[in-house]
Fold this sequence. Notes:
The protein is α+β, with helices and mostly antiparallel strands. It has 3 helices and 9 strands. Helix content is 22%, strand content 35%. The strands form 2 sheets. Strands 2-6-5-4-7 form a 5-stranded antiparallel β-sheet, covered by helices on one side. A 4-stranded antiparallel β-sheet has the order 3-1-8-9, with helices on one face.
Amino acid sequence: xxxxxxxxxxxxxxxxxxxxxxxxxxxxxxxxxxxxxxxxxxxxxxxxxxxxxxxxxxxxxxxxxxxxxxxxxxxxxxxxxxxxxxxxxxxxxxxxxxxxxxxxxxxxxxxxxxxxxxxxxxxxxxxxxxxxxxxxxxxxxxxxxxxxxxxxxxxxxxxxxxxxxxxxxxxxxxxxxxxxxxxxxxxxxxxxxxxxxxxxxx
Length: 202
């Protein structure tokens, strides 16, 4: 079974020069109008829990949906298959709500380096899980691997401290599109390869 844990949660940022620098994934990227609210919550939760490690920039706040792969060099046939998969998915727009925060296990301490654990907001299951499932089906039909296990979340920071699951004041955003992202690992650069609107009620 291919699990999303191998991709986004549980795996901290790569070293500056990773062996597989090109990462491709489907995600919900937070719209500009929501970023300030989530940025404020990020700072509050990190202060309360003593998180002093690497905080994500608000421009990179997102919910990962499916991991396409990590590559030494992104090939055109892989990008074509991923784009074709995205085009096959249709869903109405929906709300993504978060009611808890927690740390994922992440990378253990090794070779003198401290552990690095993702500190995340945990999203409620519902339409976001269905969107991940539909993208996964489309990916498999186009010859790509997809995750069979999905825990919707938004990473806020990476830190050595482990924070147990805790309730938070509810925060949410409306997902109106999903995006195919090319991440240049180690450079903190996202490039949009394609995007597809989620259907809004008329």
